[in-house]
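Could you join me in thinking about how sequence relates to backbone shape in a protein? To get us started, please write out a protein record for me. Would you write everything just below, so we can both look at the same thing?
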Amino acid sequence: MAVLSDAARAKVTAHLIRKAREVLGQDFDFTKVNLRDAINATDSWIEDNQGSFNTALPNPFKTNATLELKTLVFCYVAMRRSGLLRTEDD
């Protein structure tokens, strides 16, 4: 999966700014530039570490799951760890 284009990163930044209060129940305490820098760094980190993530996955899943499913697993775990993902069992 390739890094996001500059336009895609800008769209993520704008979307997150709009959704911050709705999702987090709070305003950001930093500038749009700070958020954009964080999005750029996160996208670059994902690019630099995707091989390590894939290596860490159990072999049956690693060899059979699509890139989209692997990404979804990563996102769901990260969201759950941060308290943003609730399940029916909570």
